[in-house]
Design a protein that fits this description.
Chain lengths: ~170, ~425
């Protein structure tokens, strides 16, 4: 746990220096891009939700979501943030700092493997890891809301790593 | 090879009405040596309860328990209903050691007299004899009652065929009308009825020790919250709705407390809620995931899942708190434990590299055995007599309930015709 936090610290420090260049460079060539961009109806749904009425403009985050979606993905039974997700999380943090009245909801999920209650806890842990990294950038905890659905709300139905990897996630919802 | 021959008996009950909503498959996955050879003779005059037959219900109950080797109906040498008609010589050739005989007579309108006798063919004496008065709607109840009595007479263990199971099912999955329902059915999957229905997720049903109430998790208010519902009155009360996770309720043996998981303190930890006093006591702390509490029968110790050592493993802690002790060491994933009624065994989900399967462990020797063979098996729950374990498994992409005898020898699937079923919780005795 502490090791994980330390890694988050190091990564966030590194990114606070190089966030801009990384965020534009890293996404298109990313290993997950083929599966995740446009191919997942639930992501489309979430993106539509983001453009709802009355929302504050969240420039950096809006831009990031438009190009690469609003989802942070995880390894099995892990709440550690992968490098590929850092740009999205940084964009969220940047937007929340710029708009102190803005709110962001972090929905944590797990794949169907393992027990339901443990997965509920794991989903929350994933959302917390994302929240902690956003808060490290100076965002107030009041701007962030967390909920876990465990394995109960899969983005993709089906068994196999193809589905599972899309279900181990935290969705960033404005 | 002979030791592992597979015998598949598919028993399809095509009946009308609600009780028709299940197909029971019994698969005996290993040799049945050691099981008690028994015959169940069709009851004389058994048009009662048709198309269901008391004899068929009893035959299935005994067969799926793993304790009995039930003689095929076709191999029954004599269709008799009274011990005086038994030709012991003829029965000797079947290898059967005891036989259940019965007779059903109509006493008036919808009232029947179901007489039955269990005969020891070796000692040539009656082990059990009884009469049950009943109406036709009680046919399954009568069958299970007879099974309970036969089971206890021959094994010395109280029969659990008249018990029930609670579970969660998703109906119209993936459609606009998707619904989550909390249901209660007979332990063999029949007579399912819905006690709570929601468009939001339902999780983790847990029986009160007297079988009158269920605690469960519902997302109906947006976040997880724990409810207690009286299954007879239908009344329900929200007992925990804190910030973060409210989950994994588990009723204490005295019925006065719920162990549960809350993350309001930062990370998921185990708490004990005094239901009447609405007072919470925290048992675990620290940044790890602690969840899925289960009580030992003495009410003084709780088992739970924790990832404090890296991956999920089973630990135990005193209800007074203090240091938790790790119980499981085999495999990288051990979670969601349930304790046998005598406290001698625990069952849980294990992954030792071949998928998620149900394991049973002797709490004294710590010897562990895998007793299921699926890839996504979960939510094991002991029968109230400890003889079998019900769990959830995937069957062609759909969630179904399965049960396995505690020795792993007999497995069965309960296929409900509707919905994606999971999270079985076996009721206590009535």
């Amino acid at each position: 746990m502490t090791k994980q936090l330390l890694i988050v610290f190091i990564i966030s420090f590194f990114l606070s220096i190089s966030a801009c260049s990384t965020s534009t460079k890293q996404m298109p060539g990313d290993v997950i891009s083929d599966d995740y961009e446009g191919g997942d109806p639930s992501l489309d749904g979430a993106t539509t939700g983001l453009e709802g009425e009355g929302d504050l403009a969240m420039g950096a985050l809006d831009e990031m979501i438009a190009t690469s979606g609003n989802v942070v993905y995880f390894d099995f039974n892990s709440a550690e943030i992968r490098d590929e997700s850092i740009p999205l999380i940084m964009a969220a943090a940047e937007s929340l700092v710029a708009n102190p009245a803005a709110q962001l909801r972090l929905e944590g999920h797990a794949d169907e493997r393992g027990t339901r209650e443990y997965n509920l806890a794991l989903g929350e842990q994933r959302a917390q890891t994302v929240r902690d990294l956003i808060m490290l950038q100076g965002v107030s905890g009041n701007q962030l809301d967390i909920i876990s659905y465990g394995e109960e709300k899969p983005a993709v139905v089906g068994s196999g790593e193809e589905s599972w990897q899309q279900n181990r996630r935290v969705e960033l919802i404005k | 090879m002979n030791n592992f021959f597979k015998l598949l008996i598919a028993l399809v009950f095509l009946t009308i009405g609600q009780s028709a909503q299940a197909v029971l498959e019994i698969e005996i996955t290993q040799g049945i040596e050691g099981a008690l050879p028994i015959a169940v003779v069709p009851f004389a005059g058994d048009t009662y309860g048709a198309p269901e037959a008391v004899e068929t219900i009893v035959r299935n109950d005994l067969g799926r328990s793993g304790f009995f080797d039930v003689l095929d109906k076709q191999s029954i040498p004599q269709l008799v209903s009274s011990p005086s008609q038994l030709n012991f010589q003829v029965w000797r050739n079947t290898g059967v050691e005891s036989v259940l005989l019965g007779k059903i007579t109509q006493t008036s309108g919808d009232q029947y007299r179901i007489e039955f006798q269990l005969i020891d063919l070796i000692r040539k004496k009656r082990i059990l004899g009884n009469v049950i008065p009943a109406s036709t709607k009680d046919v399954r109840k009568v069958g299970h009652k007879i099974s309970d009595l036969v089971f206890e007479a021959l094994t010395g263990i109280r029969g659990a065929f008249s018990t029930r199971v609670a579970y969660v099912s998703t109906i119209n999955k993936g459609t606009a009308n998707q619904k989550y329902v909390l249901q209660i059915a007979d332990a063999d999957g029949y007579n399912a009825r819905t006690i709570f229905s929601s468009s939001k997720q339902i999780l983790s049903p847990s029986w009160s020790p007297d079988g009158s109430r269920l605690a469960y998790v519902s997302f109906e208010s947006g976040n997880s919250a724990i409810y207690i519902q009286d299954i007879i009155q239908g009344t329900r009360a929200k007992v925990s709705a804190k910030k973060g996770i409210n989950s994994a309720p588990s009723w204490s043996p005295d019925g006065r407390h719920l162990a549960l998981t809350l993350s309001a303190g930062g990370s998921p930890d185990i708490y004990i809620l005094n239901i009447a006093a609405k007072k919470l006591k925290r048992l675990t702390s620290g940044p790890s995931i602690d969840t899925e509490p289960a009580w030992m029968p003495d009410g003084r110790t709780l088992l739970f899942t924790s990832d404090r050592s890296g991956g999920p493993q089973i630990y135990q802690v005193s209800v007074n708190g203090g240091k938790a002790q790790r119980l499981t060491f085999d495999g990288k994933y051990n979670a969601a434990t349930d304790v046998s009624p005598d406290g001698k065994y625990i069952t849980f989900v294990n992954n030792s590299g071949n998928g998620f399967r149900i394991a049973i462990m002797d709490t004294q020797s710590k010897a562990m055995r895998i007793i299921s063979d699926g890839h996504l098996d979960e939510s094991p729950s002991f029968a109230p007599n400890g003889s079998m374990i019900m769990y959830a498994t995937a069957d062609q992409g759909r969630g179904v309930l399965a049960a396995v005898s505690a020795d792993g020898r007999v497995k069965q699937k309960l296929r409900l015709t509707e919905g994606d079923v999971r999270e079985p919780s076996w009721s206590p005795f009535r």
